[in-house]
Amino acid sequence: MASESFKAPAANVTGSFNDRPTLPTSENPKSWSKGKKWVVTVVASLMTFSVTFASSIFSTAEQQTAAEFHVSHEVTILGLSLFMLGYCFGPLLWGPLSESHGRRLPLMLGVIVFSIFQVPVAVAQNIPTIVICRFIGGLFACSPLSIVGATLADIWDPVERGIAACIYSGATFSGPVLGPIVGGFVVDSYLGWRWTAWLTLIQGVFFWVLGIVFVPETHAPTLLRRFQARECSSETRDELGRANANPPVSHMNWREFMTKYLARPLVMLASEPILLLTTLYMSLVYGTLYLFFEAYPISFQDQRGWNAGVGALPFLSITIGVICGNLTIAATTVLRLKRKYNEGGGKVAPEERLIPMMVGAVVLPPGLFWFAWTSSPHITWVPQVLAGIPIGMGIQVIYTMGLNYILDVYTPYAASAVSANTFVRSMAAAGFPLFATPMYNRLGISWATSLLGFVSVLMMPVPILFYVYGERLRKLGRYSIT
Asked: Range of 221's domain?
């Protein structure tokens, strides 16, 4: 059904156009060795880490840049928010490009251009240069976020992908969590705020080089087209012409590209309730994480009087929570999902992904309320810092299993589904920091964080709803598998 949009011309290597082509086992990414798959997974995840690290590290430079360029703190927050705004619009291009031209080209192009745009940030002499280049950097930086999830779907079966997705989502969240920690000590040192951009450039180029070496093409339709072009005999090429022997992408006009690929993520988001609600839930937790990049300094630096470096260390508790979330996912994958997969003869219902997501939905709200009501400077910092563990665990499990559920439900259109998801999530991540400071100043830390807790309680039924009704909704969907 859905896969027809990705089919190359129905030709085999002998020149007959009657049989539906198939990719030989030796060329199929799902047939790669486990070692090769894990190398691709880890390196692609490191590329994701490099761009998410860049998203948050600038938050520690906001006070220094505000002082140097004589602007308000609210203006410098745009350095974070506009980077995330780039995340919003980039997926509408990168995801469709990965479906029409393969995963590797847009992935590598995005990471290297993102890295290059760190240079004008590092040498900037005014705020407009910083925020504009951060926005452009974000447009290109989101290519791994739009593509790597689909890459995992290309190479792993559903059970093993659950573990691989832990690595990917761990990189997605450890990057923005570690960014303020590293950045805090950098801006407090003799290096100054400009080195937040230089460090981003260095690690971005390093992981890009690793990607060039270790991440090959994984998109099966693209590999099939290349295989046909390679294997087609010279006689067949002479007879049929290069137009039939080469990928059809070269003949796709812009109107077809716009309607077939570029518009698809938005159409899916508007017409698929599973994608819409799962995306909204993931956007809440993702936006909450980026809101904390403004809320944590208010709580630990402004109220408790810690410096920028030490004030960022509480983010480590969120990292511990992310690790706990990954262990939870791994345990449910090994103990339940693998058994269901074997019992189903190599098939498993996508709704099985939602069981750990329910756990995350239950864990997150208490963590937020815990953080809220231990935030008083008259209370020791220990319980407030420890609250980051259930927060990190809840965010990680909800995000990872939500992503896996989307990949399972929309496998033939994985890149478009992830692009739509990334677009909305990034809107939340761009917007939440903008209202964080006014909200926390007006409501106070306790009630502002409690508000997030109440909203997370309202979203708790989402995984339960899809666990019960998901199969019926999939049968009604145009893009979902049945």
From this structure: 2-16+24-476
